[in-house]
Each structure stands twice: as C-alpha cells, then as structure tokens.
C-alpha cells in the first residue's frame, strides 16, 4: 500500500558515516515522471567530494572496526540493513515509484529483493571465513602453500536509474560482504532510495567510510570516481557509451572494471507451444515490465511463421488490456518512462522505425486519459528488417519489434544478429531443441519458456557489447576479492641452485 503523503527526505551526501553538504553546495531537482512536477532535490557531488569520500573509504579499510572484520561480523551489518529495509518497505517503495515512475507493485517487489540480496550476501560473508585461507597441496613436500582471499580495496559502484535501489544493492551487498570500502554513485535521475540506504547504514552503525554515497551528474561525479588513482576497482551498470568512457579512464591506471551495458535480447517462439496465452504473457512481460526499461528486455520477438498471425492477434488483445496509469494506482502495470529525455528518445525511435518502412501495429502515442507525465503506450512494431535501427539499438522503453522465421537455423541467426549478448529466451516444448538453443545463443543469460525471472543466487551478466564480469551469486562476491598466492619453503635443506662459495 502506498503512503500517499510520504515526505521526500532532503539529504546531503553520505560520507564517512554522516551527512555532508557538497563542497560546491549544488543540488539537482527531483522530477516525478508521472506528473512532471519537481518534488524535491538531491545533492550534486563533484570531484572535490569524490576526494573526500575516497579518503574516508581508505581510512575505513585501515581501521580495525572495518578493515579487520571477519565475514561473520560483516554479515551482522548486512542482516541489520536488510531488517531496516523491510521495516521501511512501504515508504521506500512509494519513494521509488515517485522518483522513477515504476509501478508500486514493482517497487514493492524490488524492496523485497533488496532485503533478500543483503541477507544472501550475509550468508556468503560468513562462508568466506572458512575459505579465506585455502591450502593447496603440491607434489613437493618442501613447500607449504595456500591461497588467500582478501578485500580488493576501495571500490567505485556506478549504478542506473531503472532499478535504483536494487541495482545498487547488487553491487553494495557483495562489496561490503567481501570487506571492501565502497563509494556508490547512483544515477541522478533516481537517487532517493539510494540516499535512504545511507540513513539505514547510519542507523545500524555501519562503520564510518565502509559505504559512502555520492549523488550527482556523471561527468561531475562519476568520471572523477572512475579515474581516481586511489579507487581500486569500478563496477558499472548502464549505457554502452558511458561504459566505454569508464573503461578508457580505468585503463590509464590499469584499474579492473566490470561492466553490464544493456542489450537487445531475443525471445524465440516455436509453434509447438501448448498454450498460446502463456507464451504471449511471457513475451509481454519480457518487454513491457518496468515500462520496458530493463537491460535484459526481450525486445526482439522472433515467431515461427506458422503461428505468427494468431500469436500477434493474441498479443494485441493482451497489450490493449494493460492498465496504464499513475504508478501508485492499484493494478497499474505500465507507468511513465523515467524522464523527459527518455520519453523523447522513445518517440524518436518510433518515428525512425516508421521512416525506415516498419509498421506500428499498436501504440506509440500518449494515452488519451493521461495529459501529464512521460507516458507512452506500449508499442508493437512489425515489417522489420535486420538493417533497421529498431532491430539493432536498445530503446529502453516499452517497444517490441517482431520478425518471423521458418527454420531453427534462421531463428538462431536472427537471435544472434546483435552486437549485444546479455540475454535470450526460447518458448518451446521440445527439450532437445531448447538444449540446442541454449548452446547456440550468444548470451550470458538464457530463459526457457519464460523471460526475465531473476534470482540473486545466479550469475548476471553478458558478453559481446553487453560487457563482462558478473553480478549476483558467488560470482558477484568474487569480483570484490583479491586473490593472493602464498608459498613457504619449509625444508631445512639448502635450495642448492647456485654453487656455495664456502665449498
């Protein structure tokens, strides 16, 4: 249930366990995408604030209250954060919807996932204690060896606006579980709940500097964080062009990065599916959930020719039945896109598709009953060819483009016809076919007879221009650990490589 009269908190930057005004005292307005009204503001960090946060993080690593903690000690903090998040679930979900335009149902589900993710990494933090020092047996008795897992150091976490607190948690929780000191830079388009995470960390007594939160613009806050000489790693989720800039800046210092840069994912539907409506709903959910603002959205629907006409008829009926409204309204299933810039971008994609000869089968306009807000009807586009922009480029809006195929070979070729490689989906009852496609899909995530279910126990990430590295699961923890090889010579005998001068 939404708290309709929820107050938008006025926060500063969260640095060294306290609220701190930005050095330049600048702030950025918060615009509610459902009403286009300014509902508050957030602090705008600059390079000077990055310096302060990095220094706070380095001091945290040097102190016993964070730098020398065990995994079990860190787990207590993570569980306390999870508990506080659940206490404030209703308020945080409402803030998320007001800030980003997400439906309240999706925002509330996100808060559950956020708490569960902190709990999950609390478990992994505890398990890390037994793995921290792992003996390795050699064929030589004269050596004793082990592998040491240690926190990587100070990590910069740059996260997107489509799942503001959830995407931040995917990086914050494992970074803290590993024992790193983190600096979170969320998107300026949706930062409210990330700042509230700072207040929760303050309330539970997370040691100062273990997590610092800097809101602000990419060029002014994200860029100096990426290029800072005392930040040991950057983990980024966002657009390809920004990912390239981050990777370029990090390369000057040979700094490790992990990148999740979006996609143009396919969902392939075969004619052997038992229930057309089930497949139709997954196709819709795969593209229109979160108003299509999903990096893994299966926005290329590839249907077997023999069922294409019937499938599209059902798809239209289902699409017309989607409730588009204020995100706080009950049963709203499609809210506004996040900003005026994103709204114009989506409309430009539709216009370009028309100009290139595609057919707008449905949608693409403002819903008649909504005069304000960045709302656009869900869009289904047919008569698409593989040279069109709408087939190639990520829209990040509720836009589904459709092509048909006859053979498996053609379907695989169409599915892999993209520079991205994040996710793929197949709808078929043929188990062996699903196995063939699992092997053939050039992506890091594969869904069989579904699209978009995400679990924090499983690795998340892609290949090609969707980036590299993995969030979530044990893999999400490992990228915040430094691996040391330790070798000790235990024999009393001389090594006897050189001739001794005493002989």
Automatic annotation (TrEMBL):
Question: Can you say what this protein is called?
Answer: Aldehyde dehydrogenase domain-containing protein
Q: Under which pathway is this protein filed?
A: Amine and polyamine biosynthesis; betaine biosynthesis via choline pathway; betaine from betaine aldehyde: step 1/1
Please report the stretch or stretches of sequence annotated as the Aldehyde dehydrogenase domain: 19-486
PANTHER family, alphabetically? BETAINE ALDEHYDE DEHYDROGENASE, BETAINE ALDEHYDE DEHYDROGENASE-RELATED
Q: Which organism is it from?
A: Anisodus tanguticus
| SUPFAM superfamilies to which the protein is assigned, alphabetical | ALDH-like
The molecular function GO annotations come to: aminobutyraldehyde dehydrogenase (NAD+) activity
Q: How does it assemble?
A: Forms homodimers.
Family label: Belongs to the aldehyde dehydrogenase family.
UniProt keyword Oxidoreductase present? yes
Q: Name one GO biological process term.
A: cellular detoxification of aldehyde
Instruction: Tell me which UniProt keywords the record has, alphabetically.
Output: NAD, Oxidoreductase
Q: Which InterPro entries match?
A: Ald_DH/histidinol_DH (IPR016161), Ald_DH_C (IPR016163), Ald_DH_CS_CYS (IPR016160), Ald_DH_CS_GLU (IPR029510), Ald_DH_N (IPR016162), Aldehyde_DH_dom (IPR015590)
Catalytic site positions: 260
